[in-house]
Amino acid sequence: MAASEAPPSAGSGGASGAGSGRAGQAEPNHGLRIFLIWLVVALAADLLIWFVWGPHLPPGDMASAANGQQFDIRVMAVMAAPVMALVLVYGAYAMIVWRHREGDDTDGPAIHGNTRVQATWITVTSVIVLCLAGFGTYELVNGQGAGAGEGPTAIWHPTGTKPLQVQVIGQQWRFTYRYPQFGGFETTQLVLPVNRWVQFNVTSLDVIHSFWAYQLGVKADANPGVNNIAFTKPTSTGRVVVRCAELCGLWHGAMFDYGKVVTDSAFMTWASQTRAQLADVTAMLPPYATTYDPTVIPNINKAMAKAGIVGANGYYYPPNDPVQP
Amino acid sequence: MAIAAQPQASESGGGQAIAGRAPRPWWGRPNMLWGLVGGAIGYTLGHVLGNYLTGLGAPTQYPNTALSDSADWPIVLGYAIGIVGWLAGLGVFNDILRQMAGRPAVQSDENEVGGLAKYFRFTHDHKVVGLQYLIGMIIYFCTAGLFAMAIRTELLSPVDHVFSSAAYVEIVGEHGTMMMMLMTSVIVGPLGNYLVPIMIGSKRVAFPRLEALSFWLTPAAFIILLSGLLLGGFPFGWTGYAPLSIQSTVGADSYAMAFGLMGISMVLAGFNLIVTIICYRAPGMRWSRLPMFVWSMIATSFLFVLAAPVLVGGMYMMITDRTAQTAFFADQLGGSSYLYQNLFWFFGHPEVYILALPGFGIVSEIIPVFTRKPLFGYKVAAAGMIGVTLLSFFVWQHHLFDSGINPDMRPLFMLTTELISIPTGFIYLVAMGTFWKAKIRFTVPMLFAIGMYFNFLIGGISGVFLSDVPADTTEHGSFFVMAHFHYTIMGGLIFALFGGIYYWLPKMMGIKLNQTLGKWHFWTMFIFFNSTFLPLFAVGMAGQPRRVFEYARNLETLNDWVSISAFLLGGSILLFVINFVWSTVFARVREVGNPWNSRGLEWQISSPPPPGNFARVPVVLSGPYEYGDPNAEPVADLNPPPGVLAATFSTPQDAKAEA
Amino acid sequence: MSVPARVVTLVVAFLAVAGGASFLVINFLLSSPPVEAYTTAADGQVHVTMQEDPQNTVTNKPDWVSYFIKSPTTGQWVHTTLFQVPAGATVDMTILGYDGCTPLRNPFWSKVTGTIGNVADVNGKPTKAINSWSGCNVGHTFSIPGIGLNVPMATPSVTATLCSTSPCTSGPHEVMTFKFKVPTTPGDYFWQCRVPCGGGFIDGFGGPMQTIGYMTGNMEVVS
Is B556 on the interface with C (CB under 8 A)? Predict the structure, then answer.
């Protein structure tokens, strides 16, 4: 029996590149056309993105980290738009100009590849990608970590000024904030002074949460036993939305609150007032530390047991029995 | 290099009439029904054993634990022994036990034609396994899709709640886990297992039993995952971060067992395909003639084999943390939550390339047929697949940029993540080159392929935004990430899947799906998919985190738009299901030839293929993409004269066996 | 298979699937404990009564601590944590504390906040804070984060024998009373306990702490 059926009558010879003609008709320069359309579209998109949309890009510019991120997103959008435009313009052009015409059962030209095109593509994409990686690294280093949580040993931090220390304690299902430079009081309100570097020390008392202060451009995961440091400098006053950005159990969706950035004098007033108001609670808190020893409570339990104080079924995890049915 | 001697069916399977004995009835042979019975018995045994063990070890404060059903041991052991029972009922162990008893293994029903019963059995025919996978995957996809509809229902209002927050977080976890663990095999399973042997000119796969086992583990994983709902679900999404996953109640065990089981299924499927592709290619099927789909299958299979074991290890550690009092992941007790995150994402990132690569393979297979041109830059496309596979193991920490990992890691992983977009971009180079001066026919498979390219473009570019650490600080954990991966996975993989189904169903079942309904399916799906997920980029950038049931009130309009679009998207999938059921069950429009006029080797044999695929092992003469070349050889010689084959074999005995 | 046979198979399969899905959704996803609806009494306040028990003998998880709410209509204790109050009302809450003590993980929550006067009455004595680390003093808390309400629950004496069946009707207990104002905008405000009392779970925050009907619930504010 014969071998596989040959495909419908083989099409026009192996033409490649622009300029080969169909019988009696000059082939338009597709490459040039596509290039021109692309140029217009990409330029228009880039101008719109940079000038019109740019200043309004998220996450806004209320803080240095947010500002840096907004700039990054702007630059990347300007670089992404021409790439997308190229693929979309080419695709649209191809689908319109090179669609199958009724009655034409021939194959297309047998173009297996074009070394020049391939090499150009690989080079250009590599250059774009490496530039973006370099740009991102630069923004990270120059932006004092760009608001991302850097872990306990932060290598990018503001130099010169000593930042305001704010500890963010994530617990199921609320963030609380401790201000060690003001006696270590703890509060559920996040209040920050404008134009001053803030160092967030984010930790958790139970599971993994994530401290996401949107307008400040800060996101740092709260891990138990780990101090995650992030920096930002608010540059204008206003309200800050704080949401938990890592699924932490039943009420993760309801774990959010609002903070605010106020003037320096308002902040100092608030801090001293709150310190005084909460003095009794602060006396009950463990001393300020960047992480809180999770065995503290089992030790308390042991101390209580030693003193003859017994808890009922509400007892806590003994440290030698991590999981029980 | 081909395996010379293809084993012939030596003994008939249990269903054939053996001289003097009537064939066994369907309920007398191991099949899915017995599998369910075995699973139920196994679960009960395991549960009782677990209760006994718990009773032995539990402190006296919990005398009623065994009855209260909140213990982890009974659930975990129940699942484990239930899985063994399921497999036993299916007859997976029969051949092993036979051989241990000194009797030969049985070559089952390759000659059994007709009838639906073989689709419910543990069978050695890769074509049957492929179709089993196809139906299974459609069921899993639709179930997980229903959960997605429930999520969008809840998100219609930021303040009025349809589900309690407990139910919502369960639903989110079920949707994500079902999709991410089962859709890994959504193309490798049905299309890979069915088509790869035929595409490489082989009569069988290398390890048919492993292949069938990889399929039969999926319904078990599906049932185990769904049963989590009966146990109270799991509140940690598909990522399962510790210590929340250690803290959770028994529903988490269903997550860990199901995911671990799917990991095993992935390793088996991948291993089988790698060996098949390397060792079972027909003579003349050089690597440079391999269809691009097969390249994507081997790349995906390497990812399966290398990444899935890490997942299984991680899930195993989670189970021991929850049951056996280890402390791998609990910071509170000396472990580290970072360990889990790294183990999970070391698997998790190759996983998403497992989801993306088969999509690339399918569309690269479809576009030459409907542009009637060779695939532009074949070597570039293959290099792209290999590049993505290699690099995917070096980027996983980009999921952990904000988590407090060592900050030095960030520029490194930002670089590698940016770099991986280079081989990913090759797919577009190949597509654009193939479209140059083509004769594009907008058939249903081609529409889905074009849709895939459009969606993956958006998904891929948004990935570049995420790879930039400063920008990622705002985008991580928000709906931006959600939109990104839905564009790449659903917009890429699932569109390619549907394209592949419309393209290959005539081959697989000899039935053509209704093309008008197909076009309706495509257009509704494409429009509503983009309408659902494009606004989610904005929603994420505006500050809405993932997996929340309450959100800022000013985002309500956007969320409502997205939810309505999602319902309509669900409707379009329903349209596909209707088309599929109608065309295969009722209309049954026969399509036995080569409806797409494709040069692929799989189209040169009848539809559906005969048992054994090829009457004789073919000799491949040229690649499958030689359109437009009048001097191209036909793709293969299906009836090579004996001398041709003998010349390619290494030993005279092999040649004699084949002649 | 003939066409009628195929139709029948399809219909049966569809019904099975639809039935299974509905069963799952109705029995597991949509089910929830009952909501106790309180209304404003003659004195203009809404009187809500709850209790917290060291265990519960009414479910299949007997070792889980649990709150109970007194039904406004029947006066019986109901095993639920969902209740409803009218918007803008003043709630006069009474909570009977039958359970023993566990130290707070974060002692910040020892302080009474969000109530009228920022005090809560322990057996009639106004209290601003209960130190959970200085002795066996705090069993649970009743906290509604959305309105900044946090009230630690006092515990019976350390040496007392706690009640062993639930809902507790006799046995040593403390009576906490406090008042707070409900917001005027309708909505759901979740409430939780902050004491790590989920025995046997990491950080004591699993199990009953994350299951509605035990130690966490919802205050629905309706107009």
Answer: no
d(CA B341, CA B354): 19
A316 and C CB contact within 8 Å: yes
**Which residues from B are below 8 Å from A9, CB to CB?**
630
What CATH number is given to the structural domain containing B472?
1.20.210.10
As a whole number, mean pLDDT of residues B472-477 equals 93
Closest partner residue to A312 (CB to CB) among C54, C145, C194 is C54
| pLDDT confidence bin for B161, thresholds 50/70/90 | confident
Contacts of B432 in chain A (CB under 8 A): 87, 90-91, 94
Tokens 């204008």 map to which residue?
Answer: A236
Same domain, C110 and C197: yes
Q: Using CB atoms, which residue from A206, A224, A309 is nearest to C136?
A: A309
d(CA B83, CA B42): 7
Q: Look up residue C82 and give its amino acid.
A: L
* Same-domain pairing of A217 and A175: yes
**Closest chain B C-alpha to A272 CA, distance in angstroms:** 32
Asked if the structure places residue A134 within a domain, the reply is: yes
Q: From the list C1, C32, C61, which residue is nearest B70 (CB)?
A: C61
Instruction: For B76-100, write each residue's pLDDT tens digit.
Output: 999 999 999 999 999 999 889 999 9
Angle at A82 between CA A81 and CA A84, to 5 degrees: 65
Quick count: other Cβ atoms within 10 Å of Cβ B628? 28
Residue B534 exposed, middle or buried by CB count within 10 Å (0-12, 13-18, 19+): middle
Task: Tell me: do C89 and C22 sit in the same domain.
Answer: no
Structure-token pair, residue B290 = 């391999």
Distance CA C202, CA B478 (A): 27
Report the candidate in B522, B559, B499, B534 with the shortest Cα–Cα distance to residue B293: B499
Among B292, B473, B541, B614, which would you mutate to test the A interface (most chain A Cβ atoms within 10 Å of its Cβ)? Answer: B473
pLDDT classification of A295: cutoffs 50, 70, 90: low
From chain B residues 356-395, the ones with a CB under 8 A of any chain A CB are: 371-374, 376-380
Angle between helices A64-97 and B444-467 (to 10 degrees): 160
Nearest neighbour of B64 by CB, restricted to C30, C62, C203: C62
CATH of the domain at C40: 2.60.40.420
B49 in contact with C, Cβ within 8 Å: no
Query: CB-based contact (8 Å) between C60 and chain A?
Result: no
Q: What is the pLDDT of residue A11?
A: 32
- The residue range of the domain holding C96 is 34-222
**Number of domains within chain B:** 3
Computed over every residue of chain A, the mean pLDDT equals 83
Q: Is C30 in Cβ contact with B163 (below 8 Å)?
A: yes
Give the predicted TM-score (pTM) of the model.
Answer: 0.91
Q: Is residue A80 part of a domain?
A: yes
> Is B22 part of any domain?
no
Most distant CA atoms of chain A, gap in Å = 105
State whether B247 and C200 contact (CB < 8 Å): no
Residue B60 structural domain:
27-104
pLDDT digits (tens, 9 = 90+) for B18-69: 444 566 777 778 889 999 999 999 999 998 888 787 766 554 333 334 333 4
Residue A151 CA to residue A230 CA, distance in Å, equals: 8
- Cβ of B419 within 8 Å of Cβ of A129? The answer is yes
Q: Provide the shortest C-alpha distance from residue A82 to chain B (in Å).
A: 11
Q: What's at B275, amino acid-wise?
A: V
Selecting from B169, B323, B403 the residue whose C-beta is nearest the C-beta of A149 gives B403
Tens digit of each residue's pLDDT (9 = 90 or more) over C30-69: 888 899 999 998 888 999 999 998 878 888 777 788 999 9
- What CATH number should be reported for the domain holding residue A210? 2.60.40.420
Give the ipTM. Answer: 0.92
- pLDDT tens-digit profile of C121-149? 999 899 999 988 777 788 899 999 999 99
Are C22 and C88 in the same domain?
A: no
